[in-house]
Design goal:
By secondary structure, this protein is α+β, with helices and mostly antiparallel strands. The chain contains seven helices and eleven strands.
Length: 275
């Protein structure tokens, strides 16, 4: 958390405002994230025009003519637009001052990242953090057949396989639980045992779940907000099982169960998701 819908919501909010505009100043108040923020980041970016705001998996990619600024929101990060000169909030660690707007990166836990990839280092898609990522869920090549074929040698539980991001990116912990509920698949089911028919259900559930999350501005558990400062509304509108332990299933009234898979919480209905 934030997951793909939250990052994509942020990307859209940034792209609609600052793409094509000059970055006048970067103010770094805290350099210690997952990896240190470059000490000379302002020197690198000051006076350059942002060409495009892109995304790969959970990484924001701010493309300039001389390289790409990679931003990861970690477990608790968000980027919001602020008024010029607005007082800093606690955990506002990086300020991006463009010629038309100012945005701030807020990250209480500092598990995120702000990294610079110069153009001379080659294609950003070959970066160590991106090269092994799976297909994007909205890529036309992501199909039920692709999913079924990719699962054939996967002996782990389907929830765990979805989370590792090597087959398809962006189906993080929240949306994996929700997608598996929609597809009526038990999260503990061995991935390679899923038939093509069940993969068709799961594929459709993933697309529908992520689309719902995008339309509602993502999910907010604690810290995430969109660039406009508003919380995501997915939980209020759509969530069926996540964070609903012991509450009645919205389809059959059976109490929702919580288990731990790979140190992450998984929620499911033992009746609707029997197999």
């Amino acid at each position: 958390m934030p997951e793909l819908p939250e990052v994509e919501t942020t990307r859209r909010g940034l792209d609609s405002v600052i793409s094509g505009h000059q970055l006048n100043e970067v103010r770094v108040h805290q350099h210690q994230f997952r990896w240190p923020v470059p000490e000379n980041l302002n020197e690198i970016l000051q006076g350059h025009v942002l060409q495009a705001c892109q995304r790969r998996g959970k990484y924001l990619l701010l493309a300039f003519e001389h390289g790409v600024l990679m931003i990861h929101l970690g477990m608790s990060g968000s980027i919001r637009r602020v008024a010029l000169g607005e007082f800093l909030l606690k955990h506002d660690h990086v300020e991006f001052v463009f010629d038309n707007a100012e945005f701030r990166l807020n990250d209480p836990r500092r598990f995120g990242a702000v990294l610079w990839h110069p153009a001379e280092n080659g294609d950003i898609q070959n970066h160590l953090l991106l090269a092994r990522l799976g297909i994007e869920p909205f890529d036309p090549q992501f199909s039920p057949t692709y999913l079924h074929n990719a699962l054939q040698d996967k002996k782990s539980a389907i929830k765990t396989v979805l989370l590792n991001g090597e087959i398809v990116v962006g189906v993080g912990n929240i949306y994996a639980s929700e997608s598996l509920f929609r597809a009526r698949i038990n999260p503990q089911t061995t991935a390679q045992t899923l038939s093509l028919a069940r993969c068709k259900r799961l594929h459709q559930a993933i697309i529908e779940t992520l689309n719902d999350a995008l339309e509602s501005g993502g999910s907010t558990l604690k810290d995430y907000t969109g660039t406009n400062g508003e919380a995501g509304a997915y939980f209020d509108i759509y969530a069926a099982v996540y964070d609903r332990e012991k509450l009645p299933c919205k389809k059959c009234d059976t109490p929702v169960r919580k288990i731990i898979q790979g140190q992450r919480a998984t929620y499911f209905c033992p009746k609707c998701q029997r197999y």
